[in-house]
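WP5 quarterly update. Target: Fungal-type protein kinase domain-containing protein. Source organism: Serpula lacrymans var. lacrymans. Length: 237 aa.
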Amino acid sequence: MFHGMMGHYNMYKDGWLHRDVSDGNVLLLPEPEIRKPLTRFECTKNLTKCVGVISDGDQAIRWRELDRKLEKHRSGTLPFISRRMLNMWNKNQPVLHTFADDLESFFWVILCVLLSVGHERKSLTEDERLWLFEILAADDPGSSDKTKRWALSMLEASVLRTKHKLSPVLKVFVPFFTDIIPFMNEATEAADELNSDNLVESLTTLGDKFYEMWFTAFLRALPSLPKTWDEVLKPPI
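Structure tokens (predicted):
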């Protein structure tokens, strides 16, 4: 996932916004490859081993060409589309798809993959089973937005305020979620506050800021993550 996100940033700095980050478009390579490091950020400048990629750019757009019309119809895969985009589309209002929306899509991919692993191992809490089912089952922007906001509020209560019990597969990701959830919300607020003055410059500056924050959070959480799921999950009985 981390390497797919670095690939996403490489697209972004080259002027392309993917717009369809999903579980089917972030792929593991058959074998690790040595790639040119991402030197823009201190935290990634020495990382040369690549194990994953972002694929399928069919819905990608040249984000610097801001004379295009705002999106009135959704792009992306519904379970992973950002709350911001879903909310505006549900109101039938045009909206500018930004890096913040794609970064949030990475969050939903990560959460759904973790929940799917937990479901396979029969280790999810009842709330988590509902999150997974309802996120994947939502079939329109309004219900998807509502489900995501509910799931995120519950996850925030568990991670940031320890109000609810988490399953083992989510518990080991608490350090990551603790950083990422506030970053994600901050990026959404920044996207909502954009105006037409110096828009490309703002998107460039904000993009660099938030990608670096996400990369740093990933790398900071990495030492606490298991090498295999068997370290934290028991096989199903």
